[in-house]
Amino acid sequence: MADNRILTRISDAELDRRWAALRAGMEAHGLDALVVQSQNDWMGGYARWFTDLPAHNGYPKSVVFHRDKPMTVIGMGAFDSSRDLGGRDPVQRGVGTWCGTPSFLTVAYTTDYEGRLAAEDLLKHGVRHVGLVGPGGMAHGFVQAIRDGLEGRARITDATEWVDRIKAVKSAEELKLLEASAKLQDDVFARVLGAIRPGMRDIDVTALAQHEALVLGSEQGIFLGGSARVGQRSNFIPRSQQGRRMEKGDHLSLLIEVNGPGGFYTEIARTFVLGRASNELLEGFQAVKEAQDHTLSLMKPGTPSAAIAQAHDDYMRAHGMPAEKRLYAHGQGYDMVERPLIRRDETMSIESNMCFAVHPGFETESIFAVICDNYIVGADGPGECLHKIEKKVFELA
Fold this sequence. Notes:
Elements: H1 12-29, E1 33-38, H2 45-51, E2 61-66, E3 71-76, E4 81-84, E5 95-101, H3 113-124, E6 129-132, H4 140-150, E7 155-158, H5 160-168, H6 172-195, H7 202-216, E8 221-229, E9 250-258, E10 268-273, H8 279-298, H9 305-318, E11 329-331, E12 338-341, E13 355-358, E14 361-363, E15 368-370, E16 373-378, E17 381-382, E18 394-395
């Protein structure tokens, strides 16, 4: 059957749960349709959450979610291509019409093609009020084509806030898949731990990690790591800068941030030393581990995310470390980074069944102190760490 091509298939019951929650929200907000667009499988989780199928590699996937009929999906395809699926296709579940168009984000004159098709679909179904979900992340041409096509005929509002709140609280099925993602990353980490040795380039380490992750069921993600002599900081750096060859006595900070079965992201970070770690490196790791514990102690349901961020900054300053100016903890699911953020500008509060990556850190000229693990919030706060890899600097003497 065609549906056996999906590596890990989300259940029909889970999709029905999501769609029912969306339709209840649409009823409450007087919406006839929602529109989402994603372009990748790293920070493009909306399309996958609606359909169980991701967007890929910068190619847009647009979804029109109707309140009282099956979805319309628009993606890469030939001009004037369209298939009537009637909501019964085993792969494109819940989709009434699939239509294609050859548009590319790199070709300016094509960026409104999907928007035109979306507007045609909305008008064909007589919608009067449309909610855009994440419009700031959509292609400008896509949004403008919808606005132009519906001008004077339908109202357009932003539905992101309430959809994000639904998406942030995970179901039992989603939580099990997040646990499986963390387990996959632990297995990858353990295999790297057994293979890393002097003479390997940084990219040899990350390529090994990627191979193991893909074999174990991951689809997408990143592996950041850069080695250095002990006494020089070892930052997370991308593939294009992973050409350094490690020698005995070097250390490497490695971040494994890939999705697992079903497309759910978690992330883990630790530091390896091909020899003995300096006291400074060990003390830095202990400091961020204790900062992680401090944040976890505050993550109770009902607590505003912004209040936790402020408390973290106060803690870091009180212990001689810099306050956070970027992002040190955040929700995860179909996106590497999703709401709520533990940051001063976040309006959401902590709720049970949210999944968080918590990764406080700091850097100096001589160390990059980092830790990263995932936790699921329960009724009384975070449960056990999803990652089982020991929280330490790994000395490979």
